[in-house]
Write a structure and sequence with these properties.
Blueprint lengths: L31 H5 L24 E3 L17 E7 L4 H18 L5 E8 L9 H10 L5 E5 L10 H6 L6 E5 L5 E5 L4 H12 L1
Parallel strand pairs: 2-3, 3-4
Antiparallel strand pairs: 1-4, 2-5, 5-6
Length: 205
Amino acid sequence: MKLPVNPKRRGLLQGIGALSTAAALPALAASDAEAAEPEPEQEFEKYGIRNYYAPEIELDYWIDANGKPSSFSVLEQKGKWVFLKFFQNWCPGCHKSGFPTLKKFSDEFHEHPDVAIAAVQTVFEGFSSNTQAAVRELQLRYELPITMGHDVGTEETQHHPLTMRNYRTGGTPWLVLIDPEGVVAFNDFHVSSDGLIEYVKGQVG
């Protein structure tokens, strides 16, 4: 996975601190002089791929806001802010914080031309509960006007979701914000929904 052109975007951003102990969203501004400097190699954090380019998510199952077969490409969202939520139907934390955050963010931005939103059920346990049907049920339950997908992995991945591997998630819920350059600006189990919304508002106007 390639490092971004300018991974020096690590200043703490006030107002969007994670609710857990993970780092806050990095500041996005950097001077041309900084961008021109050679960068040292960067190590991964314990979880996630913050400051790295976001990989594509390739799934056989996507549905649109109306529950119809659809598709979603992270790479095709270049130029937009992208918010992703990874979840499981039986995940208590997803229902306590993940989905409420997704709902609030979706209500604010789902029609914004510079923002894309998607959610993926990354199933690594509870296969009888975390089903394709549950994806649509949750979409209706939380009134989510967004694209949603289902990832159970393949035989090659021993049915471990490739999405989880590529994004190095620590489980569910896992929230990801990708900047318009395609670089992961934030990823963690929790985030302040109000802080997240205000931050993205400040970026897209």
